[in-house]
Amino acid sequence: SILIVDFGSQVTQLIARRVREAGVYSEIAPFQSAADAFARMQPRGIILSGGPASVLDEHSPRIPDTILNSGLPMLGICYGQQALTQQLGGRVEKGMGGEFGEAFVSVDATCALFDGLWTEGERHQVWMSHGDHVAEIAPGFHPVASSPGAPFAIIADEARRIYAMQFHPEVVHTPDGSKLIANFVRHVCGLPGDWSMAGFRAAKIAEIRAQVGVGKVICGLSGGVDSSVAALLIHEAIGDQLTCVFVDGGILRAGEAEQVVGLFRGHYNIPLVHVQAQDLFMDGLAGVTDPEAKRKFIGKTFIDVFEAEANKIGGAEFLAQGTLYPDVIESVSFTGGPSVTIKSHHNVGGLPERMNMKLVEPLRELFKDEVRVLGRELGLPDVFVGRHPFPGPGLAIRIPGEVTRERCDILRKADAIYLEEIRSAGLYDAIWQAFAVLLPVRTVGVMGDARTYDHVLALRAVTSTDGMTAQAFSFPGDFLPRVTTRIINEVRGINRVTYDYTSKPPGTIEWE
Ligand code: XMP
């Protein structure tokens, strides 16, 4: 495996992605705890990330000595290059303004990183983003690529197998970057590149069995891809020691509950408790119009219901969660000294502490698209694997104003028509998320010879890569008119449909 030491770059996760794409397992550790991670992982190579600090500052982050003196191959990126240089006896200088954006490097010498990729005399595009720069390279190094702004764009000490670059190979703006990284992990570190999801599945199953023993595990199933994959994997490991709890608060999409229960209980034979908590949720939501109040009530009620069910099942000491890698990577913090913050999974925050249970989180090392690959590997049907994200508070945050049973029913019908049309137009997979919002606004219309005075429905569809930013999806010309006609004809209570073209930012994806 490869250990990635994080010095706080915004793009450190991309390094992990590139290494895994090369078929090699990698983990990220913040520089403060990298020595522990090193001892635990016993990696075959080290990558040192970029970061916002300056090695010239007094308390700047350093490469732990055990790592620096390990004799393992190392690749330093940006700050990583500067830290290597300074700690190995070279010199780093403050930049005047720095260098940001696209640049071209010329290849000046052969280097193991260039195998089958770059040859001497060629020029290649890279992405620079740095303030300080290396002024004097450390003993043993020589430059192998340079640019007008960066004479030491790439430096190498082939004897010690230490390489360092001023630019960022992990971003897409360095077109050959992933191949440079692949050459490092495969040629230089000699790793075979055979890390696969099949191997991960087998290893995780063994790990879950070892952790759980004969204990009981409960898993909150939402129907989303993360909890579905986690439940399947755990079931494969420990069979009926796992019980799934599916809380139905009446704020799910049309057909969702039937699909989840049918698949997990019916098809996979996994013990599943389907909690019908519609009354509890709807009664509690009566009169609540503030978005945050809705979210808080739903979050708290979900936990109450889940806890009550867990107590009924009894004897479970483990709680399974579909936590993903981006949720657990410790973020490097410079403002609060050497402390680290761990993001908590926003859907189930507080549950494990309150219930005093041990966590089983078999997806902790995976990125979202890797979870999908694992889901396919486990035979999870495509409708689950490729499902759009759906928020925990469900339809309740898609009904501005008061949430009632009747409004949920109206929204469910309209939303189902919208999604059915998206699927039959073959657009589902091109969209990150599509949904309808039922507005607390009534407008006048005419149907037949009668006057109507009914709700407005807003349709929304966005593209996104991670949900952090999003663009409105542009449907082909006749799509929205067709959906509008269907919804108004088929759903009583709606007489007008609009489309939301707001991107994020400035909007958010959900309306509340
Ligand atoms: P926003 O509305 O903040 O949403 O742009 C970004 C993404 O997060 C989803 N979302 C949630 N997911 N629990 C969830 O599991 C929540 O409370 C929640 N709120 C928003 C939203 O659907 C989008 O994919």
In short:
This protein has helices at residues 12-21, 34-41, 65-68, 79-87, 177-188, 197-212, 225-238, 256-267, 278-285, 291-313, 325-328, 351-355, 368-377, 382-385, 405-424, 479-490; strands at residues 2-6, 26-30, 45-48, 74-77, 91-93, 99-107, 123-130, 133-136, 142-147, 150-157, 162-165, 216-220, 242-248, 272-276, 316-320, 331-332, 340-341, 358-360, 433-447, 450-463, 471-472, 494-499.
Summarize the structure in words.
With 512 residues, the chain is an alpha/beta fold. It folds into 3 domains: 2-188, Rossmann fold, CATH 3.40.50.880; 197-385, Rossmann fold (3-Layer(aba) Sandwich), CATH 3.40.50; 404-499, GMP Synthetase, Chain A, domain 3. 33% of the residues lie in helices and 25% in strands. It contains 16 helices and 22 strands. The protein has a 9-stranded mixed beta sheet with strand order 2-1-3-4-11-10-9-6-7, with helices on both faces. The chain has a 5-stranded parallel beta sheet with strand order 14-13-12-15-18, sandwiched between helices. Strands 19, 20, 21 and 22 form a 4-stranded mixed beta sheet that branches. β9 and β10 form a beta hairpin. α1 crosses α5 (177-188) and α7 packs across α13 (368-377). The protein is globular. Residues 334-348 have low confidence and may be disordered. The structure holds xanthosine-5'-monophosphate.
